[in-house]
Specification:
Elements: H1 4-12, E1 16-19, H2 21-25, H3 30-37, H4 41-52, H5 58-69, H6 73-82, H7 91-100, E2 104-112, H8 113-122, E3 130-133, E4 135-137, E5 143-146, H9 157-169, E6 174-178, H10 181-184, E7 192-196, H11 203-208, E8 212-213, H12 217-224
Parallel strand pairs: 1-2, 1-6, 2-3, 6-7, 7-8
Antiparallel strand pairs: 4-5
Pfam family, one: Hydrolase
Pathway: Amino-acid biosynthesis; L-serine biosynthesis; L-serine from 3-phospho-D-glycerate: step 3/3
InterPro entries: HAD-like_SerB (IPR050582), HAD-like_sf (IPR036412), HAD_sf (IPR023214), PSP (IPR004469)
C-alpha cells in the first residue's frame, strides 16, 4: 500500500483524475433530490444512507429507490431546471487547474446521466468523459427502469470504468476522489483514492482512507507545489 507521501506524488503526476459526483462534485445526492421532488424524500434518503454505508449491494439499492420514485422524463428535466445541482466550493478551480496541466478529468457516478452531464457542462468536462446511470422512459415519458448494463449500475462498477479507461487511454496513474464506499473500492484499479468529506462524512471511508480531505483547496495546494 502506498504511503501518504507516495499518494500525493501520484496525484501530482496523475494522467487522469476521476471524481464521484453526488456529495463530492456537487453538494447533494442527486437521487435524494429527485425523490424529494417526486414526494418520497424521507424513505429514499434512508435507503441512500444504507447503500453508501456498504450494507446492501448498489444495484439492489438503486432498483429499490427508483421503484419508489418512478420519475418521469418531465420530472427529471424540471428538477434540473428548477433545482440545478449545486457545485461544491473549490471544485471549479480544481478541475480548471487539472485541465491546465493536461490532466484528463472524468465524472464517474452512480447518479443519473442527465444530471451528471449538466454538471459536466459547468466544469468544461466533455460528455464523453461522463460515466453514469441512464434512466429509461416509455414513449409517453413515464419511468421504464434504468439501463442495468451500465457498469456504474452495480457494486464494483466504478473500478470497471477505471480499468476500461486505463486500457483505452493507456493511463499509468489514475486517481479516484469521492465520499462513499463505492469510490473507495475502485482503488485498485485506481492507483490512489482520496476520500472527500466536505459535504458529508461517511464513517467507514474516513476511517479507512489514508488520504482524507474536507475541502478541495487542499488538493489545489498540492498541485501548486509541483
Amino acid at each position: 500500500m502506498a504511503s501518504l507521501l507516495e499518494m500525493k506524488e501520484i496525484f501530482r503526476n496523475a494522467d487522469a483524475v476521476c471524481f464521484d459526483v453526488d456529495s463530492t462534485v456537487i453538494r447533494e445526492e442527486g437521487i435524494d433530490e429527485l425523490a424529494k421532488f417526486c414526494g418520497v424524500g424521507d424513505a429514499v434518503a434512508e435507503m441512500t444512507r444504507r447503500a453508501m454505508g456498504g450494507t446492501v449491494t448498489f444495484k439492489a439499492a438503486l432498483t429499490a429507490r427508483l421503484g419508489l420514485i418512478r420519475p418521469s422524463y418531465e420530472q427529471v428535466q424540471k428538477l434540473i431546471s428548477d433545482n440545478p445541482p449545486q457545485l461544491t466550493p473549490g471544485i471549479r478551480e480544481l478541475v480548471s487547474s487539472l485541465h491546465q496541466r493536461g490532466v484528463q478529468v472524468f465524472l464517474v457516478s452512480g447518479g443519473f446521466q442527465s444530471i451528471v452531464e449538466h454538471v459536466a457542462l459547468q466544469l468544461n468536462i466533455p460528455t464523453a468523459n461522463v460515466f453514469a446511470n441512464r434512466l429509461k422512459f416509455y414513449f409517453n415519458g413515464e419511468y421504464a427502469g434504468f439501463d442495468e448494463t451500465q457498469p456504474t449500475a452495480e457494486s464494483g462498477g466504478k473500478g470497471k470504468v477505471i480499468t476500461h479507461l486505463k486500457e483505452q487511454f493507456h493511463f499509468k496513474k489514475v486517481v479516484m476522489i469521492g465520499d462513499g464506499a463505492t469510490d473507495m473500492e475502485a482503488c485498485p484499479p485506481a492507483d490512489c483514492f482520496i476520500g472527500f468529506g466536505g459535504n458529508v462524512i461517511r464513517k467507514q471511508v474516513k476511517e479507512k482512507a489514508k488520504w482524507y480531505i474536507t475541502h478541495f483547496d487542499e488538493l489545489l495546494k498540492e498541485l501548486e507545489e509541483r
